[in-house]
Task: inverse folding
């Protein structure tokens, strides 16, 4: 499974996730995870919380998992 796919799979529940927790689960640095999430945000796949330490999949994209 591609790293991108693993990130999206973890976010597919639509809940807010701490980036640090995602990094730990994925066994990657927070910087690497943030880079992937930044790419996803550019295309409207994910949204960051106001403080940018949490992220979730956008509702429109999440419907693909239903």
Result:
């Amino acid at each position: 499974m591609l790293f991108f796919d693993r990130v999206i799979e973890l976010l597919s529940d639509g809940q807010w996730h701490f980036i640090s927790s995602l990094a730990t689960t994925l066994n990657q640095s927070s910087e690497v995870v943030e880079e992937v999430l930044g790419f996803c945000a550019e295309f409207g796949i994910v949204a960051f919380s106001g403080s940018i330490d949490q992220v979730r999949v956008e509702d429109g994209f999440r419907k693909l998992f239903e």
Residues 3 and 38 are 14 Å apart (CA to CA). The chain has one domain: 3-65. The radius of gyration is 11 Å. The mean pLDDT is 90.
